[in-house]
Amino acid sequence: MKNSSRRGFMGKAFGAVAGVGAVASLYAMKRSWDPLPSVKAAGFTTLDMSAYQDNELVTEKWRGKPIFVLKQSPDMIKKAQGNPKDMERLIKVGNDYFMVCVGLCTHLGCIPGYNPDEESFLCACHGGMYDFSGEVTKAPPPRGLDIPPFKIDGNKLVLGETGPEYEKMLADGTTLKV
Amino acid sequence: MAHFTKATSLHDWLNQRLAVDTLRRVLATEYWIPKNINFLWAMGMVLAITFGLLLISGIFLLMYYQPNVELAFDSVNYTIMQEVGYGWLWRHVHGVAASVVFLIIYIHMFTGIYYGSYKKGREMIWISGMLLFVAFSAEAFSGYMLPWGQMSYWAGMVITNLFAGGSLHADGLVEWIRGDYVPGQAFLNRFFMLHVLLIPLAILGLIGLHFGALRIPHVNNQDGEEIDFEAEAAKYKAGDKANSKVIAFVNDFMSKDMMVVGIYLIFFFYLVFYHYDFAMDPVNFDPANGLKTPAHIYPEWYFLWSYEILRPFSTDTGLIAFAFAQVIFFALPFLDKSPNAVPASRRGLFKYWFWAMLIDMIILTAMGKVPPEGSFSTIGLYAALTFIGLWIALPFITKFEKKV
Amino acid sequence: MKELFILAVVTFFTLLTYWLVEPFAHSQMHKHIEGEGFAYKDLPALTKKGDAARGKDLVMGAGACAGCHGIEVEGMPAPMDAVTAAASYGVNPPDLSNAGAVFDPKFLAALIKNPAHALDLEHKYNEKSGKSYPMPQFYGAGGDIDQEVADMVAYLQSIAPKKEELTPNQAFETACGRCHAIHYPYELDGKIHPSWTQIGEKPSFKKKQDELAFEQKVLDYQDSLTKYLGTLPPDLSMYIRSRGEHFIKTFVEDPQVYLKGTAMPRVGVSAEAAEKVIEHLEDVGDSKRHQRASVGANVMIYIFIFAIFAILWKKEVWRDLH
Q: Rounded to whole angstroms, what are the CA distances from A165 to A82, A170, B33, B105?
């Protein structure tokens, strides 16, 4: 019969057309799942760097995560200058240096506590320790505290945007992408 | 333990465990449907597709909807409609589908009434279908509460007030239903639960019952002819498809269904994108305000005929008439005393009963929407009385129907 | 053929029901007002050509406008902050920077000479009620009052943005924003605009106390407004969908036609400014309309193709069956 070669062709063709619609619908569904614009817009935190005191840890918030801001005292800066790895972690805003890190231990995510007398962080969960620049000093954390993307804007720091200083930190491997 | 052999293929493996071949024969390739049918027979598939659209759009609405009286309105009209990627699309699809599904339900119902598909062994199909109508009505009502607009609030207020039972003054019952003195947080949350979980489960179960009830009596046909399905199926399987009076569900019936669905979807999506005010009433774009009643409150169009039966009478009479209207359709197979299961056109007085009922319900629908004043309330009263009269007359006119 | 007849019957009854329930029923529920297209026929036409320089002298001098009104674009802030002004006068006298672009010149002239008349509020402010409108009438500076008023209007037009440059947001804030809030943020050209309150866009606050202090100011302002008007004007976030363009335009043109005795004044916007206000309401309440139109067009094309392929498949399957 002449239609045996066309048998099932229209069925398959129709199925293909229906499939195109299904794929388009899946795309719309994927987009509905995306984070909302208001969520993405809230992904920026501006810090006024003139408001901090030497060796006083302040915990800010960025994208729902705690952010440690520790203004370096002259003593801490001298110690850091003796250790290039430490200096690479610090952010210079004006004439001051700051440690700005995500306040989550890079081991399993607990929030470490700061001891200003010892100028060090201790994570109570498994005993990991970091120095005043966020560099890891005692296992088990695999690396120093992560540094969030930042951009220096006068004497303000905008977390969530990237500037050349942050790009350099990424390139040097000082921090991983958060 | 049944006997299992080493599988020769994936198909064989599944077949030994799930009997996929038998399922395929029984539910698809050898599910025999009469050939003598028209496009109205596709309404079932149209309903299934529309219900599917409601489920899927509902899933994405559910991801962002907040069932809290302070947040509900904005979660719909800001978050979903203006923030979520394609959120407006799901809302429009959901609102339009919720309205159009009732158009198809009524067409499907009246098709059944016209062709006598509720009698001679098909009573359970009719009853399960009517139960589905009730379930869909409850689903639509509970869903309408959720945007928490002015119409949501006041429709909720008015409909739950019905349960006070007029002179019975069952105010305690009304408060129990609401979970509060007025529609508020408790009310919104429980109707959210009903809309999202309980009633959909009931609908899915009833759909299963509806399909099951259809299987043994078989689908009806345009002439009400009694078909010997075994003989016709044998003809078909022997290769004589053209002379057989039956077709297979897959691919024969399915392809005709899909054709109707394709044309339906043109109409459906046109409404979704370009003409949706009938399904998303502007009054509901005002946030709910318990201290201000809108100038005109009315239910969605598919409830209007029923609402109008309530309105012309005094409180207690109206409630009795309203209750009558809700249940009387269930009794159709038993009130129709004639043994004829043929199209209404061949059933003498029943033909006139059918068109009178259809036109009367349209008049009731129209009167239910307009303000109950002047000639409108008079027409509404006569239409309501006609409705009751038609049902009382039914057993009598069918009893004396000539056997076809 | 029988199927086409059945389809015709079903279509007929469906369209009949639709017509009865929608266009017909709604025509019975709401009267249709045609509107004048912002012609303000009851107000006299401007006969004099205004001189902006003379107008500036009058506005700053004999007109005494700056006693209550700020003019930001001239570096003159309002004499009182919004909350205090609302507590004193009932409403906050608007800044005049955009007035020349938003309001009809006939209206502005009539307003300066007799505010209660131009604003269509004489049912509230008249000899019998004894109430006088917070903004006093201008009785002239000694010369031809029509010339003076024309000059003042010309000055206001000279400092205002050009018609093409007036943004929808500016039109809304000037014409409606002192009484109506819009709590929905909206995005336009990549920038997110926060909620609009009657005292300005809501800033973001780091400290909760600062946020609460701002919200208190808004509430105090709203209390003054409610006392002055008798009710708090509604939030307009979703008005473009609950009322629609036609109702909003004809209502704004003359509120008394729809709500006799209402405290809402005749706003006096020009036809072009009204278009911009509508556009702003659409940006806030129906921001996805463009995407809806474009996705709609694509979906309609697709669904036609879908239907055609479905018909072709059916024909292929049913060739053996007929």
A: 21, 9, 74, 65
Distances (CA, A) of C221 to A19, B308, C119, C199: 57, 46, 22, 8
Domains in chain A: boundaries: 2-34, 40-172
Pair B281, B375 in one domain: no
3-class secondary structure per residue, C184-218: CCEEECCEEECCEECCEECCCCCCHHHHHHHHHHH
What is the residue extent of each domain of chain C?
Answer: 1-30, 31-287, 294-322
Q: Nearest residue on chain A to C302, judged by CA atoms?
A: A21
Q: Which other chains touch chain B, taking contact as 3+ CB pairs less than 8 Å apart?
A: A, C
Residue C29 has pLDDT above 50, yes or no: yes
For chain C, give the mean pLDDT: 93
The domain made up of A40-172 has a fold known as: Rieske Iron-sulfur Protein (2.102.10)
Q: Judge whether C10 is closer than 8 Å to chain A, CB to CB.
A: no
CATH code for the domain of B96? 1.20.810.10
Q: What is the pLDDT of residues B336-386, one digit of tens each?
A: 999 999 999 999 899 999 999 999 999 999 999 999 989 999 999 999 999
The token pair that represents B258 in the structure block: 């899909």
The pTM (predicted TM-score) of the whole model is 0.91
Measured between CB atoms, does B136 come within 8 Å of chain A?
no
Q: Do B265 and C322 touch (CB under 8 A)?
A: no
- Residue A4 is classified by DSSP as G
Prediction ipTM score: 0.93
At C251 the pLDDT is 95
Residue A7's pLDDT band (boundaries 50, 70, 90)? low
Same domain for B143 and B160, yes or no, is: yes
Q: How far apart are CA C74 and CA C158, in angstroms?
A: 11
Q: Do C192 and A41 touch (CB under 8 A)?
A: yes
Q: Do B83 and A28 touch (CB under 8 A)?
A: no
Domain that holds residue B224: 27-293
B36: nearest CA partner in chain C: C322
Last residue of a domain, one of B263, B293, B323: B293
Closest CB to C313: pick one of A11, A21, A24.
Answer: A11
Is B217 in the same domain as B269? Answer: yes
- Reported as a single tens digit per residue, the pLDDT across A95-130 is 999 999 999 999 999 999 999 999 999 999 999 999
Domain boundary among B293, B324, B348: B293
Q: Are residues B83 and B228 in the same domain?
A: yes
Residues of A in contact with C310 (CB under 8 A): 14
